[in-house]
Specification:
363 residues; TIM Barrel; Chorismate Mutase Domain, subunit A; 2 domains; eight-stranded parallel β-barrel; 13 helices; elongated; binds the ligand C=C(O[C@@H]1C=C(C(=O)O)C=C[C@H]1O)C(=O)O
Length: 363
């Protein structure tokens, strides 16, 4: 999927990244939608307006979206404010209607991404259509499922695709509504480096006070844009009231977020970075060398255990190491839990290697 296009190729993206997308969680009334969008465009220059027309809700009985009527309002907003619009689609009929009313970009929600049948239905409806599609991560932290959805939309011929990171459901209570697990977004970017990534701090945070820190974190991780739910009267929103911000607050957040570039043309900066990275290269070589020496000793201990009929796993010794190394690390200013994880990995590898050694007769 190397020919997935950068955001700059989307006709709706005028000034390059990072882009901002904002608008209400749901279209509620023509007046609410128009007023919210008008206030947003008066407060700040954004790339695109968003509004939910069909809302997949966790439990029945909640407001499930206004439906086709809302698309007529949204089309008026587009015309009146001269702004591109985007909405969520969850089946073939949604695709058809959203395009009929002039949606410039479509997005697929987290609850749809989990279901390959749904994604395939949407992909089939998109065959031969030229519209950018943004695909939210599935609600569960499954990278293959996210990638699979991207592949299906790509298979329909769409090349303007972006991922939207909206965090992952978790059984445990956390300060987030959906835990970010940034490493999944990093893994996706590692596998598909040319895929634009947009962050949805509203669904990750779930509360207004988390929108700014989550947005900054996303920009620090080189995300290409932010999608922030914005409502003229968030407290009285029909859905997701606690995470929507006012247009005024949206502008504050976007102005406060410090934009960082992924690269620079400044020769001096690049030279300094090159120097420091050479140091890292040398240190990594030393690290690998030390690791290889440690593994040799592990092998030797394995031989000795075989000869003396001793178990591979030695709980006492391992518990000592597991307590001691992170404490040593902490004194050196290295994170304790990082070292715990690292030593667990090292120990797993020792067990794997020694299991092989003790079960192989010496020639
Ligand atoms: C190397 C040994 O075998 C295993 C691996 C360990 C390690 O990698 O440090 C520690 C304890 C054992 O579970 C050992 O017994 O010392």
């Amino acid at each position: 999927m190397k020919d997935i296009q950068p955001l700059e190729s989307w006709s709706v993206v005028k000034n390059g990244g990072p882009i901002a997308i904002a608008g209400p969680c749901s279209a509620e009334s023509e007046e609410q939608l128009m007023e919210t969008c008008r206030q947003i465009t008066e407060e700040i220059d954004i790339t695109m307006l968003r509004a939910g027309i069909w809302k997949p809700r966790t439990r029945p009985g909640s407001f499930e979206g206004i439906g086709e009527e809302g698309l007529k309002w949204f089309a008026n907003v587009k015309k009146e404010l001269n702004m591109p619009i985007t909405t969520e689609v969850a089946n073939a009929q949604h695709v058809e209607l959203a395009l009929k009313y002039g949606a410039d970009v479509l997005w697929i929600g987290a609850r749809s991404t989990v279901n390959p049948f749904t994604i395939q239905e949407i992909a089939d409806a998109l065959k031969g259509v030229d519209v950018p599609v943004m695909i939210k991560n599935p609600i569960n932290p499954d990278l293959a499922l996210w990638k699979g959805a991207i592949e299906r939309i790509y298979g329909a011929g769409i090349r303007q695709i972006a991922g939207i990171h909206r965090g992952f459901s978790s059984f445990e209570k956390t300060k987030y509504r959906n835990v970010p697990m940034w490493k999944l977004a990093i893994a996706l970017k590692t596998e598909l480096p040319n895929l634009p990534l947009i962050c949805d701090p509203s669904h990750i945070g779930g509360t207004r006070d988390l929108i700014y820190p989550v947005s900054q974190k996303a920009i620090d991780l080189d995300f290409d844009g932010l999608m922030i739910e914005t409502h003229r009267d968030p407290d009285n929103a029909w859905s997701d009231a606690s995470q929507q911000v006012t247009p005024k607050r949206l502008a504050e957040i976007l102005n406060e977020v410090k934009i960082r570039k992924s690269t620079t043309d400044a020769e001096e900066v690049n030279n300094k970075l090159d120097d420091l990275r050479s140091k890292i290269d040398r240190l990594d070589t030393e690290l690998l060398d030390v690791m290889s020496q440690r593994m040799s000793v592990v092998n030797e201990i394995g031989d000795y255990k075989r000869e003396n009929n001793l178990t591979v796993f030695q709980a006492g010794r391992w518990i000592d190491i597991f307590q001691n190394r992170p404490e040593q690390a902490e004194k050196l200013g290295i994170g304790k839990s990082f070292m715990e994880q690292l030593f667990k990995l090292i120990h797993d590898e020792s067990i794997r290697v020694q299991t092989k050694v003790v079960n192989t007769e010496k020639a």
